[in-house]
Amino acid sequence: MRFSNYLIAPALALLSLAGCSPDKEVTVAPAAEKNNVYVLNEGAFSSGTGNGTISLFDKSTKAVTADVFQSVNGRRLGNLTQSMAVRDKRGYIVMNGSNKVEVVSLPDFKSVGVVTGLSSPRYFLPISTSRAYVTQWGTYNSVYNPIRAGIKVVDLITNTVVDSIATGSMPERLTMAGSKVFVANYGSNTVTVIDPATNRVTNTLTVGDAPNSFALDKNNRLWVLCGGFVAYLYDANGKYLGIDYANTTAGSLYGLDPANPTSGGTSRTFASNQRVPVDIHTNPAGDQLYFRATDAASYLGGVVRLGIADAALPSLTGTPFINGLFYGLGIDPDNGTIYTGTGTFSADKMTRYQPDGSKIDEAVVGAAPNGFVFF
Amino acid sequence: MRCLLFTWLAAVGGLLAGAPAARAQQPRAAPPDSARLSRRLHRLAEVNVRAVGPERFATGSRHYEADSATLSQYRNGTVAELLQDRTPLYIKSYGPGQLASISMRGTSAQQTAVLWNGLNIMLPTLGQNDFALLPVGANSGLAVQPGPAAALYGSGAIGGAVLLSTAPDWRPGLRGSVQVDAGSFGLRGSSAEVSTASAAVAMRVAASYRQALNNYPYTTQEFGGPVRRTLAGAALRHQWSLAPEVALRLGQAGQLTASAWFTDTDREVQPGITTGTNRHAEQLDQSRRLVLSYRHQASARAQWLVRAAAFEDVLNYHDDGLTSDSRVRTTQGQAEYTAAVGARGSLRVGAEVQHFSTTFREYASPLTTENRAAAFALLRYDPQPRLRLTANLRQATLPQGNPLTPTAGLEWDLWTNGVTPDSFSHSAAQALTLKASAARSYRAPTLNERFFNPGGNPSLRPEVGLGYEAGLLHRTQLAPRASLQTELTGYRQLVDDWVQWTPGPEGYWRPRNLRQVLTQGLEASTALTLRRGAHRLGARAAYAFTQARTRRATPDDLVPVGQPLPYVPAHTGTLSLDYAWHAWRVAAATSAASYRYTDATAQTFLPGYGLLGGSVGYAVRLHGAEALLLLQGSNLLNHAYESYEGRPAPPRALGISLRLSWL
């Protein structure tokens, strides 16, 4: 019996399945600048894989290109897209779980380098054409004390780590203001001030508990948003029971002069400790501050707005400026459009709002969009 | 898109081109006595207390049963490996010996019921099975019934059911076999099976052991080019399985069977390769399952069966930062009564109760219990020998909701070559049968979904599905000992109240009855068996087209309408060949899957893959014993692929095994 022809055709057909890929062939490599929004998708955590991606949103066409790094470079970006910084047509993408910074040329997103030798890197700040700082949380020793937390100094010509600077616990966002670098020590109540010319710490400022982000307003005042320390309840067996609001401190907002940070600072504490204020931004005019009032357990919350001259802090528990369970926030420096990202860590979207808070549109992006970079 | 079309055309073309070539060979065999056939259907055996399997009430459904040659070949493997190689089901696997979960007809892993000897063995905390924890050798039967079948198999049978079973071997005398295996990447295994029977007692013991280092090479794409690495932290430290069974004949009409299945698996949990750190995760899974069943032949036309079962499942996970130990005890009872109804029908009525008791620190209460119960009635009625009907009904009682799940099924021989075949014989020279069924199905919320702290949602409703399928089955007897069976099925199912974990205003993730998912697809398979002289050949090709898409986005569910579900490849297929000639044994299996999305919003995907595996063996017979030496290879084309994102699958691997059997 000739069963060979009966078998060979299906066998070939089966193997040819392997060559197929999705219908929506990806078009990438944007040529133009100014219209690109890079959506930083931290990655799904439910899978345990945490494959972070970056979606490209084109402001003119409203088109979203999924996983632009993989599309252009044919390999994965890595685990946990934490943040991205831009300098001299280079994008520096901090991959927290993969302990590296991927370097791409912009706007074509081609991979041009990688910085390794990092440990839980968080945020990246180029301080000159040849140097950058990366904050990193490091790891924990056997008794759960953090080790190797601080700043790594990166040579942007060779993309290698060349030096370290000690900071406080869990250094988070960092910014340049008044020719100094300010580092928010999220695990403490301090801000480390560094002179980038010497890589020396010049000051350690005391602020509210758990400083997490900075915004520089039109009057060159540096705002430091502090989330407050969150305390957790455990039973006698060490089982997690929930947030311990009796011992959770309320968030606060500090304002200081970056040229003279040790004097003339202001501090205001939020009325409620039920929400953690994080992720502060300014509008293009530099007269409005936006941040998220998040739940202490889910890190999600609505967008709150504050004018720089407002006497009173807004309520964190009342109706926010933009209601929602947001994980990411960004303000377009061109036109003040507000970008938010949801935080289901699986099926997420970004939503855009006018500066007055009215909704413009929404688009599906990757899992857990935590930030937006405009280029 | 073009490549998919080509694939489909080639597959169909291949099947069509092959079929007539194979058919135009032999004159028709003489038709068997149709009267005897139709009578045999409704008479229960008097001497042996023979079970009437649930498939008797599954008229109109598809059914795949692994034959004894396949079971024998995978005896030292797991159910995951067998299904992956031999069926177009997509098994999402982290690696060899690692977590392997199933997706049947586009549904989730929790929507496939897994039964062992008629009892649900899905892990009650997670509500699913890791198919890498189910060694094949413990069982003497493995069947798959895709499609909704909750009336027959209870909770979870939305996408389908995987049915594992053991059966006493009543052939008198002592028989047994031992096997040792060794393979690439530190694979070592051994197994033994002994069975013996007298007139009144039958006994079988099957045991197996396996370990593997899984230290295989893989390549990652990094800046500067591909980097070759060796997988670490993925060892299967040990996997034990012990399955003893004793059956006693009690008088002329009774049979008491005690079956047990103990499995113990200690393994490292493969870290994702995109993560820079190995958290040294490891997991210990132990299951102890005991079933006592008594079957009584009340008369030639009626029998009843009672079963009592006690299961204990342990899942202890820990890594550098987390320890999670759980233990679930399940007690189950089942009773059913089956009787012939007139000359053309049979009816089964029964009930089952389940009690779960869990010790898990992650639950709000240290000891959490849940009870479930169900009653069912199954009717099979054949108004004519060529028209067979079933109507089944199950009423479940769950803590939150009491789903009523009916099934209606039909098989109609549109055209036969003068005889009436039944589902279980290949004696027709030629037959074309129309099959159709409609079923409602459900899945009870898992204990984790209800009680996990924080987040557990005790008021979660069961998921429910409503599905239809229809197909054509063509069977032909090419020669006295050659047959060809081809089946094409189309299906559609809407699953509602699909549970999703999402964050909410409470501040934590919580499972909610959010989603509605429409699954639809086509399944085609064709199987050829042939015996001629010393040649024995079995060949099977199977293809599935699967589409699972979200249907409705509720305000809380951010997934837009029409999103394809992750890890549901549109195209899957297998082609397997088993051939024996004198002392030689040859087997080959090809399987392929098209690309699948890895996230909920179709942003990222894994490319498709095709795999080829096979074995060559030589058997020597001497003095009632047989020695079989087998060389095996998997992923022979050395294709680099990932079944689950970030977990590289093994490259080409070779193995050798030696089996000694006393018959």
Describe the overall structure:
The complex is a heterodimer of chains A (about 375) and B (about 675). With about 375 residues, chain A is mostly beta strands. Chain A is built from 2 helices and 32 strands. In chain A, a hairpin with a 2-residue loop joins strand 5 and strand 6. With about 675 residues, chain B is mostly beta strands. Chain B has 6 helices and 35 strands. In chain B, a hairpin with a 6-residue loop joins strand 20 (about 385-395) and strand 21 (about 405-415). The model of chain B is unreliable at about 1-45 and about 420-425 (pLDDT under 50). The chains are: A mainly beta (about 375), B mainly beta (about 675). The interface between A and B is large, with 70 and 86 residues.
Outline the low-pLDDT stretches of chain A: none
Report the C-alpha radius of gyration of chain B, rounded: 24 Å
Largest sheet properties of chain A: 7 strands, antiparallel
Count, helices of chain A: 2
- Helicity range of the residues of chain B? under 10%
Low-pLDDT segments, ≥5 res of chain B: 1-47, 420-426
Strand order of the largest sheet of chain A: 25-26-27-28-29-30-31
Rg of chain A (CA only): 22 Å
DSSP, total strands of chain A: 32
What is the molecular shape of chain A?
A: globular
Biggest chain pair contact, residues each? A-B, 70 and 86 residues
Oligomer: heterodimer
User: How many H/I helices of chain B?
Assistant: 6
* Main sheet characteristics of chain B: 22 strands, antiparallel, barrel
Distance between the termini of chain A: 67 Å
